[in-house]
Amino acid sequence: MRVFNISIVFSLIIFQLAGFTQEISSFDPEDYKTGAASEHYNYVELKFHSGSHPNSSKYIQELLAAGYKALEFRVGTQSTGRQIWQRAHNYPQYGVGFFLGNLGNTTVDSTLGTPSGLFGYIGIPWIRTKKFHFNTDLSAGLSYDFEPYDAETNPYNDVIGSWMNVYFNLNFVGYYEISDRMDLSLGWSLTHFSNGRWRTPNKGVNLMGFNLGVAYHFNPITRFKQYSNPNASSLIRPEFNTDPLPPLKKYTEIYLMGSIGTSTIQGPTGNEAGNRYFNSSWSADYTHKFWRRGKYMTGFDFFYDGSLAEGYDKPASDVTFLERSSYGWHIGHGFFIERITFITQLGFYIYKESEERGSWYMRAGGDIDLNENWSAHICLKTMNGGIADWVEWGIARKIRIRDK
Q1: Fewest C-beta atoms under 10 Å: which of 112, 117, 195, 368?
Q2: Domain limits, the chain
Q3: What is the pLDDT of residue 310?
Q4: pLDDT over 70 at 4, yes or no
Q5: pLDDT at residue 269, as a whole number
Q6: pLDDT band at residue 11 using 50, 70 and 90 as cut-offs
Q7: What is the CATH number of domain 2-218?
């Protein structure tokens, strides 16, 4: 079963990076032309992380006081600006990575585990000079090797209920070029592991700290070029394409989304997973693209939460459809990176029968364009802020109503 789940990890990472494969070396004849515009620039990077646990735990808070350590290995590509989205984002880096974490001493290891994981990432430079650039790096993937809660064998783990969890990392990091091939980096990051209430408990594991890294740059087609043309030369780092961006095309759309998901509720002792329930979200948004990197949105939500059946003082079979439903209104933003739109929304309930989910919610995740009119939707819906409610798996229809 674990082999099957790990294969899912690889599939999701490949799917996540599908929009960025244009920079991967294809060894077509065009790739062998001398000149910076046809080159491909890659690197490997090793990072060391260390910091603290801003976690809320009834039983193991003191054990987490020693902090965490982790190693991270990346294989990445430096974009050259050949495509419009790369120039619009100041020539980002992207790739895949692997991490290995140690959450504390041996007692913490036996309670929470020693998580490893695979992820895809993209780094957006906000400041770039000749020798230095400062990035916001966003990484997302799946992690494994946690020790989940078990009432008999692991009763003190009150923060995570599954051995496999989503991995999310936000890193603010500066890179300094010390040679043509080598970079040093220093950053500060936030890391979050959770399962979207697939299993309980699901307070999540949170890490916060500094990281140090070293990167080695190389050009993967240098030797192939020299083999076909001994006089050819290849650069290790790119000379960026600085062609002017085309005029910005603004537009307004109606965005219709439908999704499904499942969740569990906590069992009798408050930790173990109880019954699993079906959930669904439906949204209608008015969206407007106002700059190259993003759009704003506002709209209405309908939520069906099957797990609310256990939130009333009566048998679950007597809880009506309306009592399991809620309606909300949200505002939000979409951040464009090629065919992927990262979505963040803040919402408030307009009507609901139950008070179990609080008064407000958030949505964070992304859409992947399938074509001009349809996209795949993967987001985490939360309750009362950052507490995971369920993962939305859906599809969205975009209807253009006005172009400028």
Answers
A1: 368
A2: 2-218, 251-403
A3: 85
A4: no
A5: 52
A6: very low
A7: 2.40.160.20
